[in-house]
Write a structure and sequence with these properties.
Blueprint lengths: L6 H19 L5 E3 L5 E3 H17 L5 E3 L7 H4 L4 E9 L1 H6 L5 E8 L2 E9 L4 E6 L4 E5 L13 E3 L5 H5 L3 E7 L5 H8 L7 E7 L3 H8 L5 E3 L5 H13 L2 E5 L24 E5 L5
Parallel strand pairs: 3-4, 10-11
Antiparallel strand pairs: 1-2, 4-5, 5-6, 6-7, 7-8, 8-9, 12-14, 13-14
Length: 281
């Protein structure tokens, strides 16, 4: 199935959803709230409709799981070999605040592993995408870009050379702008060494994982709750950039850490850390 998926088609779908989001972002819009008190806007609904409709048209045989329609019983999901995992707007709080740090996330999951990811940053016109064994990339798209323009202006991730990053006298840690917990702060306090100081950057949405993928941050600790659709697309990009998203277990030896997995009975992610790949053994 993976080889049959045209990454350009998924990029185009994310771009269309982002265009619709920006039309709403640049005017007054209504804000509602879900049962868990998280915000929901007309942009979330519109982007979700566009993504789901276009994916079903392009790949009708692949089932969908989205933040806005996630009530699929595990007894059904457990039989899926491949499925789309979608967050039409990751960072709705950032969207509402108007700071631009929100993304469109589309991932393809194979069993429990993200094997394709597209993340679009509409305000910046930045498109990140990856496909298993084909690498991870960043592309700048104009407002007029369409599928027929092809995939020009592409940069391979990571953008920074590994040698340059290792020579730095600091560890760059990216953290959540809206959900920084005491546990995360305590974890960060353990990173300082006599040779390296810690620099902390706050970002919204899946931009945090993308910063690790492109090399502008060394580590992203998330010792707070997230859902699978919050991470899936950017996680695919992280993995193809040569990094990994690990489940965080306190006092566990680094070599024993396990990658984050998907399509669990409970779609809530465990705490995790995004960073360099650790070779087990």
């Amino acid at each position: 199935m993976l080889k049959e998926i045209d990454i350009e088609v998924i990029v185009s779908i994310a771009k269309d959803a982002g265009d619709a989001i920006m039309k709403i972002y640049n005017r007054d819009f209504q804000i509602d709230y879900k049962d868990d008190n998280s915000p929901l806007t007309e942009a979330d609904i519109k982007a979700n409709e566009i993504i789901c409709r276009m994916l079903q048209k392009s790949y009708p045989e692949v089932p969908l799981l989205s933040e806005e329609n996630n009530d699929v019983p595990y007894e059904i999901r457990n039989n899926w070999e491949y499925y789309w995992c979608i967050d039409p707007i990751d960072g709705t709080k950032e969207f509402i605040e108007g700071n631009g740090e929100f993304t469109v996330n589309i991932a393809l999951i194979h069993r429990d592993i993200p094997v394709l990811g597209v993340v679009y940053v509409p305000v910046l016109g930045e498109m990140y995408f990856a496909k298993q064994r084909e690498g991870a990339y960043k592309m700048l798209v104009s407002a007029q870009w369409s599928l027929f323009d092809g995939m020009g202006n592409i940069m391979k991730l990571p953008l920074l050379e590994e040698e340059n990053r290792k020579e730095k006298d600091e560890i760059v840690v990216v953290v959540s702008k809206s959900h920084l917990t005491k546990e995360t702060e305590n974890f960060i306090s353990t990173l300082t060494t006599k040779d390296k100081r810690v620099k902390t950057i706050s970002k919204g949405s899946s931009l945090k994982l993308l910063m690790v993928a492109e090399g502008s941050a060394d580590i992203y600790p998330r010792l707070a709750s997230t859902m699978e659709w919050d991470t899936a697309a950017a996680d695919a990009i992280v993995r193809e950039s040569g990094k990994m998203t690990y489940q965080y277990i306190s006092n566990k030896h680094a070599s024993d850490l396990k990658p984050l997995v998907y399509n669990k009975v409970n779609l809530l992610n465990p705490w995790f850390i995004v960073g360099e790949v650790i070779i087990n053994g």
